[in-house]
Amino acid sequence: MWAMERLEHDIAVVGGGAAGLRAAIEAASIGEGLSVAVISKVYPMRSHTVSAEGGAAAVLREYDSFDLHAMDTVKGSDYLADQDAVEVFVRECPREIIQLEHWGCPWSREPDGRIAVRAFGGMSVKRTCFAADKTGFHLLHTLFQHSMKYPNIIRYDEWFVTSLITEDGRVKGLTALDMRTGELAFISAAAVVIATGGAGRLYRFTTNAAIKTGDGMALANRAGAPLKDMEFIQFHPTALPGTGILITEAARGEGGYLINNRGERFLKRYVPEKMELGPRDILSRAIITEIREGRGFEGPYGSYVLLDLRHLGKEVIERRLPFVRELATHYIGIDPVHEPIPVRPAVHYTMGGIHTDIDGQTPVAGLYACGEAACVSVNGANRLGSNSLSECLVFGRRAGAAAARYALHHKEKKATSNPVAQYWRAEEERVYSYLRRERSEQRVSGIRRQLQDLMEDHVGIFRSEEGLMRASSEIRKLRDALHGAAVDDKSRVFNTELTAALELDFMLTVAEAVVQSALARRESRGAHYRVDYPKRDDEHFLHHQLSYYTPEGPRLESLGVSITRWQPAERRY
Amino acid sequence: MGTVRIRVKRYQPEGGAKSYYQEYEVPYTRGMVVLDALNYIKDNLDGSLTYRWSCRMGICGSCGALVNGVPRLTCATFLSSLRQPVTVEPLNNFPVIKDLVVNIDDFMEKLVRIQPWIVRERERPIEEGEYRQTPEEMERYHQFSLCINCGLCYAACPVYAADKGFIGPAAAALGYRYYLDSRDEGGSRRLEILTEGAGAYDCTFVGECSAVCPKGVDPALALQRIKLESAMNILSGLLPRRVVGRPK
To answer: CATH 3.10.20.30 residue ranges in chain B?
Structure first.
């Protein structure tokens, strides 16, 4: 009795942001006969790429070099990035910037018509291409509109992927909920590309949109692929207090200052050379330290420091940072032309993710990943601003190409049988269990809030063994609570309370990986800071941590770091 | 701390075919937007309340709704500016799927119809670098590239209300954006696409689209310019010895 609808494609891309769309476009171009599904729980133009503001880095200028971009990236990563991957990455960024330009992306320009570049955190020279301060918005819309040209890209908008299906260690496809009908379907595919972004919503205070719940990381993890470097969560130094709305690093790239309550540019005591353009991990710790030591400001939404743009002048702000001005004015009534903006660090980016090689391939045959959901690793323990959009394009393309080659090779051998009846029955049971249960002790929203508070309080910028152990045991209890929970909304059509419960399930899986990895890394490196182990320890911890899913909790393994040209050194800015 | 009364139009396809209004009381804190109230209701009072949202910063376009009768982004509309009870309804002119979630298939189809991609006879190889485009050339089309596809303009447009075949403001503005892009070679064919059928000429210049647009795109301007350029294009085609097309 096969009641689930079955849909067939060669490749299924999960996630419709920059990485997912780039992968889909590449796969569809390489294999005109290939059928490429793009499955997203939101319409692609809603993907979180859209909120990215600052820019995409690439070596475009004579004064720049691949070696310099690579070195900046490796140093920025606190020497945890895989240098062979970084060398490939920096060499492909320029072609991606030009490719997007050919496709219509409105990169900001120099007077002579060339693509302009600006300064950015941790970058030795100006190499960040930008589209005003809405780079992600323009990039995403360019990719989305360009993808509409391909008849072999078939979109499943507002379909929520619930599980990946594997057989004999190979991917076979996935199950997904059509939000409009509430029915589960089986999408058969030889290759699956995960491009679902990061997991910022694990935390209470984040720049991230609602949809950043780590779905794809959990999906892949449960399908047998390890996650990597999950302990490294980036806090962006400058978010608006209260909402967590992002104020782009470009504001500092254009010359903005960070000021404490004594009116001083306090970063001179932390990163005297780079100042406001130091790397994000150091800046976020610096801001919190200033606040803890009484040199911050107090407001209705907590403590903050000031980002002062007044000296840039109205003309520069309107031309280079119009969105920053719009956001500050609209959401907190502050016009940065006349007043400094209150800012504080917020969770922003997940350096860790699904372990892949430089072609986006995971250890599970047919399963690929790219973008923030993946960890190659190019970003190591800390990502430099403007490397992420470039990474989405470079590895989106590589993963799409690799998936296409795999799918072409396996075209004859596609699954003709349906997954074991027990599998789909179990999945159906699991998904609809939230509707079938009569009542629960806690609301799903309450459990989610508790998770976010735990992560914020114990797995934040400054961590300790005690806090992490507390988080670990509490999260296990939340998992049990969720599995006995019911939702108010018992209907099938467009049930966003059900998808919230499914997302929370994914979030808990990802959270456990983050906490266990953080516990095991008894050193401080990049964004991971242990107050009980405040120094970097290359002798014992110069390695990645892989996190495998087991029902009892994550199982960790070490993986070496590729070091080609840049020996780990003291990291000073 | 006071409370705010929120009145939401509900509709569940599985619960009988009629829509109804439900009122909730939400604790008010300074700086709250309509979306915050919806989230409070869903998280604490009624988990079945259904609406779209994502970025909460006015850039993803998910959260369009009628707020006290006006198409707004719920994430960008402050409760303090609204008369109570704050009435929230699904956007006009789109079929309702559930509560505040509307079916935007028609909108998506129109985006594709206007061919929103760079058209060129021959693509330059990547190795030869970018097409040069000066800041002045970009200025010509840039505002029309700022559309976040929120659909408020379709909800506000009386022509679209009467005729769902009408191309509509956002699609027209997007088509015009590519027409004006110095890198594009779509030329007069784009104007044809934008004016054929229930195209730009069906616009009666009411201007409500631009009034509700949260991003300053000014689709009404795009529509009038399309009409003008299309008319000039046709005229110049009728004149002898006149080379049609845009200088490159």
So the answer is: 3-102
What pLDDT shows up at residue A416?
59
Minimal Cβ distance to A211: which of B54, B76, B123: B54
Mean predicted confidence (pLDDT) in A382-396: 97
Residue window 412-441, chain A: list those with CB within 8 Å of chain B.
none
Chain B neighbours among A 355-374 (CB < 8 Å)?
A: none
A382/A73 Cα distance (integer angstroms): 9
> Which single residue is written with the structure tokens 């320029």?
A94
Distance from CA of A415 to the nearest CA of B (A): 32
Q: What is the pLDDT of residues B205-228, one digit of tens each?
A: 999 999 999 999 999 999 999 999
Who among B47, B62, B133 is closest to A42 (CB)? B62
* Class level of CATH domain A236-346: alpha beta
Structure tokens at A47: 């993907």
Beta bridge partners of A437: none
Examine the residue annotation and report whether A236 is marked as an active-site residue of this protein. yes
Q: Which residue ranges make up each domain of chain A?
A: 236-346, 421-560
Helix axes B219-238 and B169-180, enclosed angle (nearest 10): 60
A355-374 pLDDT, tens digit per residue, is 999 999 999 999 999 999 99
Interface contact B135-A101, CB threshold 8 A: no
Residue A382 has pLDDT above 70, yes or no: yes
The whole-number pLDDT of residue A1 equals: 41
Pairs across A and B, CB distance < 8 A = 156
Q: Evaluate whether A369 touches A194 at the Cβ level (below 8 Å).
A: yes
Res A422: pLDDT? 73
Query: Is CATH 3.40.630.30 the right assignment for the domain spanning B3-102?
Result: no
Helix A387-409 × helix A83-102 angle, to 10°: 90
